[in-house]
Fold Vacuolar iron transporter.
Amino acid sequence: MASSRGFRSHGWVGLHTAALMLGVGAVKQDIKNMIITGFAGLVAGACSMAIGEFVSVYSQLDIEVAQAKRVKKKKVDGGGERKEGEEEEKKSMPNPVQAAAASALAFSVGAMVPLLAASFIKDYRVRLGVVVAAVSLALVVFGCLGAVLGKAPSTRAAIRVLIGGWLAMAITYGLTKLIGSSGLQ
């Protein structure tokens, strides 16, 4: 999450869980189904993000190590040996485990937004509204923070993230409602 791009992409993580919860909420009104779905989405999403980040960063590490070996071989073949700076070079290499853990943690924190918002609301319609409201607020905050970190206009970024999030939640809710009402229960 060091780059503003990584920060912005992690801003959507609560949306994933919220959309799952709303999708299930479209056909099952009880709180237990929504919370179980949200929890399953949190665990699956955190694992998926961590594994994806691990593989991606490990691939980058492989490329950087291979490049460093080529440079070192070229210098050794050229008559000079290079010992200084090797330790510093190793420290600057990407760490796949650290990246995976950060990604899983970021996903989990974001997924807690809709889970916590829904956990204490018994009334079905109020619960749906609170989930949408909480995730909308989180999307605006992450959109603004990502824009600030990327030195971009924050209002446009926040609006873009918010509208994208609303579309994702509406499509998930609508399609699930359509499938659920067609008798595929």
